[in-house]
Prior knowledge:
By secondary structure, the protein is an alpha+beta fold. The strands form 5 sheets. It has a 7-stranded mixed beta sheet. Strands 6-7-8-9-10 form a 5-stranded antiparallel beta sheet. A 5-stranded mixed beta sheet has the order 15-16-17-18-19, covered by helices on one side. The chain is 18% helix and 36% strand.
Amino acid sequence: MFGLRMRRGATALAVGVLLGGILPMQGIGYAADQGSVDNAQPGQANHSSANIGTEDTNTTYTKIVLKANGIITGHEGLWIEGKTWVPITFLRDGLGLPLSYNKETHTYSVGQDYRQLNIVVSEYGESVDINGFYLKDSGRSIDGHLYIPFQVVKNYLGYQGDWSLAAKKLNVLSVKENTLGIYVKAFDQESDQASIHLKYPEVTGIDNDKAEKAINEVLRSDADRFREEIEKSLRERNEDRQSQGQNKISIDYQYSSSFIVTYNKDGILSLLMQQHVYTGGAHGMPYRKAYTFSLSDGSQISLEDLFGPGEQDLSPLNEQIKADFLKLPDYFGGFVALGSQPDFYLQQGEEALKIFFQVYEYTPYAAGFPEFPFSLKAIFPKKTAYLVI
């Protein structure tokens, strides 16, 4: 069940921020992986290095030419230790995405709706989220300019890259996606006892009305369930407080939910959803759930569906996950094999399958959600209806 888990522990991702601004300056870019979940050029996002605690002025990099759908943009990216980085204004000038800056929150925002990329500049670094869903990837300030990994653009903004290391060129291309609409449904409530900010997706424009209804019912029911559990938690808290004769609430509870679209091609829609609960203590508790749907009938695609009828042997996955867990320094131990309904999502690229585990399931809180990528064709070369990714 994708529901409220009342475990005590870190505040939601919140960081102090420092001033930045968008000015027409010369800058460099943030680099992307070749295989992958910021010249007298067009304007670049620029911030004073005096205001950024993580300003990187000694990074060794190779400049690369950035093209958008085959057209040279005049922006340059950076190749740094095997990753490609692009300046955030390449997204504006090259890809035509809106770019804005909020002085109060010190946040750069690129894109819109469910694909709004936010970069918060702070003394602790540059945190990155997609419409409130925080990513492990972060931004980077180099020589006074802001960059993000191209991997973020590829994984979440609807683009792919044609990369030539020899020519030092990256051509960023629009991905041909499913023809449908994805909208952000929100519920926000502030009170003297809790802060509630929930987001969940709603899809429209699917040719099959029954499929569209089935998908939305799944997504909406989980959102409703979370709200019901929040209401129950707050009601029980009030009852406890009143029974103990307490008039004052010691701490505001915090509840949030968000989502990202990880795959939207070939009649398949894959989403990753996250809930976060803070009820006191050193930190809050996050929980993730992924959904992968077939747009033809609205059904949820399972791991067995991906591997084809009759393919029950998951030992190649289990053995690889065991080996990868053992490489983690804080692994608790205990993983034997995947359960009947493992958490996974799809993402474009060769390693399209991402299997993940919950916080505290096999690793400590600081390790986040352990995630392991797999190439479906490499592990299970047998062709199936879903192996078009």
